[in-house]
Amino acid sequence: MKTPLTGILPVAPTPFHDNGAVDEDGMRRVLDCMIDQGVDAICILANYSEQFVLSDAERETLTRLSLEHVAGRVPVIVTTSHFSTQIAVDRGRMAQDMGASMLMMMPPYHGVGLAPPEQGIFEHFAAVSDAIDIPIMVQDAPLSGVTLSVPLLARMAKEIENVSYFKMESPFAADKLALLIEAAGDHIAGPFDGEEAATLLADLDAGCTGTMTSALQPELIRPIVVDYLAGNIEAAQTGWRDALPLINHENRQCGLRAAKVVMKEGGVIGSDHVRHPLKPMTQRTRERLLQLATERDVIALRWGK
């Protein structure tokens, strides 16, 4: 990519049939819906894609299917995280060979008691970078339990050729983004936030240039980023206030199930099944989600009708 990505790069949910099998046709419809939402790129196989319940064979199938179906209409970011450096390298090569525009990776982790030291994390990302020639987005998320210090992230940006995007989801993300931008400067092509854009306005104040949300309402969150970066701060604040109730309900009550529930209701996919041990959301939470999504008139709620 010659021009750095900005805007909104949402995570695609992985649709399953009611019996738990991957819904390949549903995946194609998810991708088409997201493109119609006006996204700037699509991320697949992330945590909100339920990557942790997918087999290696399913990952490969979904990567190939997604890249072939999107066919260059928007960039596709493939999440390739793994504790094993060699597996992360192999996943990265495969994604690049299939046509990925970027990789996203969490630091290597396996529970709170098994995480490498900072030098091991640096070497992990460096090994993947040496094997590819597309950008890498570092995902700094509480899920890993791994602390990525600002000095480590700045060193990675400066010394690892393809590490140039950062997705900040840690507590006090805005302050960390600001410190990282100050420390690494032009070595960062894309400072992004996540967490369904729950802290977007503060993160934009800190210097982020985009957000990675779910596929629930990207068409309504993207204008907040566009307006802010264009200097239309009042319009961005208005958009933020309008978006916040649905953002908050998704982030605090629904999690990765939200986009699936709305997409099923909107005819994008046939089932909102999540694989065990995950459980469906309660009827109470579902009703509030659909009420808020209806008020926002989100595209996913009416795309397939």
Automatic annotation (TrEMBL):
CDD domains to which the protein is assigned, alphabetical: DHDPS-like
User: What UniProt keywords apply to this chain's record, in alphabetical order?
Assistant: Lyase
| InterPro entries noted in UniProt | Aldolase_TIM, DapA-like
> What does the record list as coiled-coil region(s)?
none
Query: What SUPFAM superfamilies does the record tag this protein with?
Result: Aldolase
Q: Which domain of life is it from?
A: Bacteria
Q: Where is the signal peptide?
A: none
- What Pfam families has UniProt attached to this entry? DHDPS
**Similarity comment:** Belongs to the DapA family.
Stated name of the protein: Dihydrodipicolinate synthase family protein
Lineage here is: Bacteria, Pseudomonadati, Pseudomonadota, Alphaproteobacteria, Rhodobacterales
